[in-house]
Amino acid sequence: MSIHDKKPYGPIRVVLSEDEMPRQWYNLAADFKTPMLPPLGPDGKPVTPDMLSAIFPAPLIEQEVSQERWIDIPEPVLEILSRWRPSPLHRAVALERALGTPARIYFKNESVSPAGSHKPNTAVAQAYYNKISGVKKLTTETGAGQWGSALAFSCALMGMECKIYMVKVSFEQKPFRKLMMQTWGGTCIPSPSPYTEAGRSVLAKDPNCPGSLAIAISEAVEEAVSDKTGSTKYALGSVLNHVMLHQTIIGQEVKAQLAKIGERTPDSVIACVGGGSNFAGLAFPFVKDKIEGANIDIIAVEPASCPTLTKGVFAYDLGDMSGMTPLLPMHTLGHEFIAPTIHAGGLRYHGMAPLVSKAVLDGLVEPRSVHQLECYDAAVTFARTEGIIAAPESSHAIAMAIREAKQAKEEGKEKVIVFGLSGHGLMDLAGYEKYFAGQLQDYEFSGEDLENSLKCIQSFPKPPAAVAR
After folding, report:
1. What is the rounded distance in angstroms from the CA atom of residue 183 to the CA atom of residue 180?
2. H/E element, 299
3. Are 80 and 157 spatial neighbours (Cβ–Cβ below 8 Å)?
4. 249 and 73 in contact (C-beta within 8 Å)?
5. Residue-wise over 333-358: b if at least 16 C-beta within 10 A, else e?
6. For residue 34, which of 359, 308, 317 has the smallest C-alpha distance?
7. DSSP string covering 216-283
8. What are the angstrom distances between the C-alpha of 199 and each of 144, 221, 240, 403?
9. Which cofactor does it need (predicted)?
10. In this predicted structure, what is the pLDDT of residue 308?
């Protein structure tokens, strides 16, 4: 059969106008049947908003603790987001044909942002709220470099300084990410570094430490709180409630795009998950539907070598390595855990967003894990059918979507599958090169690994047994 003999499809690319872009963010915390556990301070008591003021501006603290279901997006933020939003929803018809599946596969393409991923959705918002609060400089961490690039881009638009601590193994694997940050005026250094007490402490124990997001967070927070003038604050690219909030514009657009072409509610909604921001952005608006009775499988896909949700425990743990953050109620592998040097650097985090953890505990989200070789195999299939070279992080969602599509074929079911393409992989080609050369391997996370990595949290307060089930 030639390409011209293929059966006709509906719209291949679904685009909303700027006027159709969502004007509010959705806060999942408002719809849980039971309240979330609070973050705790060093004394084991709940953190107060005032305790967060050293690193975050007041508007973001208000969003962090808000129980309002809908929060208005400021017009200046909408104006910047409209440079690339609403992002397109694609029907993956070529992938469907290659798989021979009766499923209809859609993907939300967040790679069209200037930084090449979903990260600017919150970076722009965070830079804006800091700017109007009088902040002149933001510090942050980054894994694969997508968040660091997004914040450097956003700070450039706001006329602010930006300092990024990049996990060393990713700094070495992805040199062009550093150049992107530099082009937007950001300063990017490898972490652990000799410039902070946190970094020096790690290097003293292991001069060849590959780094981790927890270490980079410690360094960025330390620099922010060391500025006693208050002109430097810290910005986090994932995990916290306000970050999840800002990303929900993604899923809201998807729902509007599916409705625009008369497509039914998806059977499966799939996104990769590391700290939670990309997953929350696509999935949380659909979690709301599931709470209200919709029959949707919502799947969070993580690396098998960093299985926070699938093998970790729900506990109170630090978000960083050196204890500068509150204790968060989340699934964790232990804050001292350093993941294998897989190329999906954005997913190499020991913990999970408390909102995502709560959704998993409540049975609203199903976590699954995939090894990196299957992910790269799926990414290559995707590139050779749909034409887009996906980020290694996004390849986890692609791999799971392919699994679901093959299952639909076996069952003879016409499923609707939606997955998130969180970013492109044009800055990650070194990983593809190693894949083609047969130089990548899978890493299995063992029970012994978990036992060792959790020793660092044994003295922390424990969630109620009824919650940490």
Report:
1. 5
2. strand 297-303
3. yes
4. yes
5. bbbbbbbbbbbbbbbbbbbbbbbbbb
6. 359
7. HHHHHHHHHHH-TTS-EEE--SSSSHHHHHHHTHHHHHHHHHHHHTT----SEEEEE-SSSHHHHHHH
8. 19, 12, 23, 41
9. pyridoxal 5'-phosphate
10. 95
Q: Which two tokens stand for residue 284?
A: 């949380």
Q: CA 456, CA 459: separation in Å to the nearest integer? A: 8
Beta-ladder partners of 166: 142, 190
Let me know how long the chain is: 469
Instruction: Give the pLDDT score at 4.
Output: 45
- For the chain, helix (H) and strand (E) counts, in that order, are 17, 15
Crossing angle of the two packed helices 277-291 and 354-361, in degrees rounded to 10: 40
What is the rounded CA–CA span in Å between residue 130 and residue 137?
Answer: 9
What is the reported pTM? 0.94
Give 131's contacts (C-beta < 8 A, 6+ positions apart): 158, 159, 160
CA distance 7 to 152: 45
Least confident piece of the model among 7-16, 308-317, 418-427: 7-16
| Residue 27 contacts residue 108 (beta carbons within 8 Å) | no
Using pLDDT thresholds of 50, 70 and 90, give the confidence band for residue 185. Answer: very high
The predicted-structure confidence for 308-326, as pLDDT tens digits, reads as follows: 999 999 999 998 887 888 9
Q: Among positive and negative, which fits the CA dihedral 144, 374, 385, 404?
A: negative
Tell whether omega for the bond before 39 is within 30 degrees of 0, i.e. cis: no
- Residue 73: strand, helix, or coil: coil
In CATH terms, the fold of domain 9-23+72-116+242-444 is Rossmann fold (3.40.50)
Cβ atoms 417, 101 nearer than 8 A:
no
List Cα–Cα distances, 234 to 95, 136, 255, in angstroms: 41, 11, 33
- Taking 80 as the threshold, does the pLDDT of residue 227 lie above it? yes
Give me the sign of the Cα torsion angle 87, 93, 95, 101: positive
Q: What is the DSSP letter of 31?
A: G
Q: What is the mean pLDDT of residues 290-306?
A: 96
What is the C-alpha separation between 125 and 158, in angstroms, rounded? 11
